[in-house]
Here is the input.
Amino acid sequence: MRLNKWVTIIIILSFFTSLFATFLATKCDKNIPEECLIEKELPIMPEMYWHYNIIKYVANYGYTPKEVYKDGDAGPKGDLVKEDGMKTAYHSPAYYYIGALVFLVAKKLNLSPIITLQVFASIIMLLTNIVFFLLVKKISKYVIRKKQFIIYSTALFAFLPVHLYISLFIH
Here is the structure.
């Protein structure tokens, strides 16, 4: 099988693994996918609300906030202030602006913003895998077994547990 076919299969499998995990996270006894997702995500990613509040704030006001509430939902605009639990934004503004755009599109299409942002995180992972593959392909000229190096490196990166773990969250 050709190199590009192997790599395409690896990258697509990794992407669908992330999407499938998001799908599974939306299933529970509550029958409300958003609540199921939040219930499962908060214990392992306690800063989820912090990032979600920043994205909501940017979507509503058009600029990044100085601080947002990090320990719970800060309302529909992400602007509710609590005395304790405030934290500043630390990602690059591009992440929050793109996330805000995804948030607004989801609301306009009557989709769940939080689930749509989870899918957006999987798409970021997909793009990261593609960039990694292109970089590995470029540096493979210094390796004896070029094809194996590219396939194994891409597979290792795409299915690295921490990489899959991070791709499942609004971060």
In short: The longest helix spans residues 113-139. The helical segments are 3-25, 33-44, 48-61, 93-108, 113-139, 146-158, 161-166. The mean pLDDT is 84. Residues 16 and 53 are 27 Å apart (CA to CA).
